[in-house]
Write a structure and sequence with these properties.
Distance between the termini: 14 Å
Number of helices: 12
Shape: globular
Number of domains: 2
Helix content: 25-40%
Strand content: 15-25%
CATH topology of the largest domain: Rossmann fold
Strand order of the largest sheet: 3-2-1-4-5-6-7
CATH class of the largest domain: Alpha Beta
Length: 358
C-alpha cells in the first residue's frame, strides 16, 4: 500500500480544512496517510482523523499588526520564514526515509519537496497580489514564487479553470514557466445535508489572525445583540474547554459547523479562500468582511461583490443594518459555482497511474 505524507501550512485553519476532502479520498483509495503539521492545524486534523499518525513540523508563527501594511509586516519576518522552510525540508526528507513515504502533498509549505519521490504543492496563489503602493515588487515576487513551486513534481490549484474560477487573478500563471499545473476544483469538507431547516437569521464565523479577529468580534457582537435577529457566533478559537453558550461557540468540528451553516439564512465571515469554497459548496448567501490590509481577502471580497454574488464591506465601516439591506440584492453562491470533486479524482488518478508505471 502506498504511503502519503500530507503537510498543511499553519497560517490560519483554511489550509488544514481544505485538506480534509483530500485525506478522505486518499483513505477511500486505501492509501496509508501520515500528517505533519503544527499549531491549530495539527489540532484540527488530529480531531478529524484521530486514527492517523501525526508528526510535528515547525510553525511559521507569523506576527500581525492592528494597522499598516501586512505585506511589509510579512517582509520583515522573511528571514524567519526561510529558516522554517529549510527546517521543514530536513524533517520531510527524514520522514520519507524512515517511513518509506511514496508521495508528499503539501498545502503551501514550500519546504516540503523532495528530489527522491514525487511531491505536490497545493496553492491558489500562483499570482501573489501586491498592495497598490508596492506593485513594483510584483515581478520579483512572481519569479520567487515560481522558483519555489518548480521544486515540486506537481502544482494543484484548488479551483475551477476559466470563467467559473473562484480565485480569479490569484490563480493566473505563466504556462511557459510552470508546466506541472493542474486544476483540482474547489476543495471543501462540506456537502449539503438534505432536510435541515433554517434556525438562524445570521451566522457569524470569526477567524483569522489576532488582533484583527478580536477587533472584529467586538464590532459585530454588539450590533448583533441590538439587531433583534436570531443569530449564532462561532468565535474561531481552538481551546481545550470547547465551551459554548446558547448562541455562541468557541469552535465547532466539521459536522457541527456544517449543520449551523446550513441552518442559517446568511453568513458573515472573512473572505478567506477556504471559507469561500465552503460556502460555495453549500450554496449560501454571505457578507464578507476581509481582514484589513490582507490583499488576497480584499481582492476576493471585491471580486465576488462586483460579480453580484456576495456583498463585501470593510471592517472599519461595518454596519450590520446596511449590510443586511444591501446583501438582499446579491445572488449568493448558486449552481453556477457548484462544488464537484471530479477534478480532484482526475488528479489522484494521474498519481495512481504514475505509481503503477514506476
Amino acid at each position: 500500500m502506498r504511503r502519503v505524507l500530507l503537510t498543511p501550512l499553519d497560517w490560519g485553519l483554511g489550509h488544514a480544512t481544505r485538506c480534509i476532502p483530500i485525506v478522505r479520498e486518499l483513505l477511500k483509495r486505501s492509501y496509508i496517510v501520515y500528517i505533519a503539521a503544527s499549531g491549530d492545524s495539527l489540532v484540527l486534523l488530529r480531531n478529524e482523523f484521530p486514527s492517523l499518525t501525526f508528526f510535528f513540523l515547525p510553525g511559521y508563527n507569523p506576527r500581525y499588526s492592528s494597522s499598516g501594511s501586512m505585506v511589509l509586516k510579512m517582509a520583515f519576518q522573511f528571514p524567519k520564514f526561510i529558516k522554517v522552510i529549510k527546517k521543514e525540508h530536513e524533517i520531510v526528507e527524514a520522514l520519507i526515509e524512515e517511513f518509506n513515504i511514496d508521495l508528499v502533498i503539501s498545502d503551501n509549505r514550500y519546504g516540503c519537496w523532495s528530489s527522491k519521490i514525487p511531491t505536490v504543492i497545493i496553492t491558489h496563489q500562483l499570482n501573489i497580489l501586491m498592495p497598490k503602493r508596492m506593485t513594483w515588487l510584483s515581478k520579483g515576487v512572481r519569479i520567487l514564487n515560481e522558483y519555489m513551486i518548480k521544486k515540486f513534481s506537481f502544482c494543484w490549484i484548488p479551483d475551477h479553470p476559466g470563467r467559473f474560477s473562484l480565485a480569479g487573478e490569484l490563480t493566473h500563471y505563466n504556462a511557459n514557466s510552470l508546466k506541472q499545473v493542474t486544476h483540482i476544483g474547489p476543495l471543501s469538507r462540506f456537502s449539503k445535508i438534505p432536510g435541515l431547516q433554517i434556525k438562524y437569521d445570521v451566522l457569524c464565523i470569526l477567524s483569522g489572525p489576532e488582533p484583527q479577529r478580536s477587533i472584529f468580534e467586538k464590532i459585530v457582537k454588539g450590533q448583533l445583540k441590538d439587531s433583534g435577529l436570531t443569530y449564532f457566533i462561532v468565535r474561531g478559537i481552538l481551546s481545550l474547554s470547547g465551551s459554548s453558550k446558547e448562541n455562541e461557540a468557541e469552535f465547532l468540528n466539521s459536522e457541527e459547523l456544517q449543520s449551523v451553516i446550513q441552518q442559517s439564512s446568511l453568513i458573515i465571515a472573512r473572505s478567506g479562500y477556504s471559507t469561500i469554497m465552503d460556502l460555495c459548496a453549500l450554496g449560501k448567501k454571505a457578507i464578507f468582511i476581509p481582514t484589513p490590509n490582507q490583499t488576497e481577502q480584499e481582492y476576493l471580497a471585491k471580486k465576488l461583490n462586483d460579480k453580484n454574488v456576495t456583498y463585501g464591506m470593510p471592517q472599519h465601516r461595518f454596519d450590520l443594518k446596511m449590510a443586511l439591506r444591501e446583501s438582499k440584492t446579491y445572488s449568493g453562491f448558486t449552481n453556477e459555482f457548484e462544488y464537484t470533486d471530479g477534478l480532484l479524482n482526475n488528479a489522484l488518478n494521474q498519481i495512481s497511474i504514475m505509481f503503477k508505471n514506476r
